[in-house]
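Worked example
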Amino acid sequence: MTFEQQPTSHSKRRPLVETVAEEIARIILEGELRPGDKLNEVEIARRLGVSRGPVREAARQLQEAGLLESQAFRGSFVRTLSQREVADIYALRSLLESTAIAEATRLATPADLAEIELALQATEMAALANAKGRMIEADVAFHTAICKAGHNQRITDTFIKLAAELRLVHLLMNPGPQHLRAAAKCHAAILSDLRSRGLDRAVSTIRSHINDERDEVLQYLGPHGDSVAALPGEGLAADDGHISASLRGRIEVREHRREDFGLLARMNRELADDEGHRNPMSVAQLEQRFERFVDQEGWSVDLFLLDEEIIGYAAHRREPDLAEPSGERIHLRQFYIVRHRRRGGAGHVAFEELVRARFDAGRRIYLEVIENNPGGKIFWLRTGFTPYSTIMEQVIVANDKK
């Protein structure tokens, strides 16, 4: 019997819509639909054996839950998240869970700890099976159980509302087996600290877990990818080091050719979108701008090749600077890695190769990172850059003088 063959009274229609919503959510969470993909209502209705009515109602439910977004005259799409939205989600999450676990060290009951233990076992099973959809749900269940153990209903309710967006974040990460296992290991450490009732240690562990996950997602969303270099005082994971080592010697730097301008313009458009830049230029306009960059403004443009595939580019030039012993500095204006190559340190290795091929020792490189690109800020800090100045701006409002 199909879903549609259930009784159709109003009291029965709500469970049907909810069942359809659950099926659509499952399709999304198992990765069949990715952020930005359109929900094909006709295909979903055919697949589930229902009419389009319940599918539309289910889509509205999922829009309210934060999994889908509606675009006028175009339909429903799996919601995408900007870097700024992700940073805000994790800031709220850190506040909620830090407070919850601090309270849980005092108030958690044996039943609370048992629920957390069950969720931990589910994450460990999902990690060992490399079951990403199951891991998403197990991860949410684990952190929900942590919030419940703090016995603050407002915190728990707020976290549950946040959970839909966290599911989207996990979809964006598309973690590999080693990342799933590392997450399960972190969960085990959190539960261990909670069982020992060590408030400071438990809060520190869960904050580190949340912040590390935040940084990984932001770097993936950012236009440069991730960096495997560790911050001062941090260790370098063996898995990450291995991945980076496999790229060294395979990424080459090649000077652009004029026939590359079309591709460069498209990558530049993606760079602006990914870093949250307000640049409204079309691909055609950006292609013309690259011609001006090279022919009139003295910019050098290099492409990054991985096994002959073009995976990114950089635009840079030398500029006068009397404060430098050499009388000049290097302005790195654009640095981009294509979206499907942002894991495993490709951006970090590409930058190393750029420096080796183009810049002399002792030269100072400067660049700008806009506020909407926190993943870029993390990338450059981990690549060895230090903050020096902040660029601020203001739009002058018309003066109503009479």
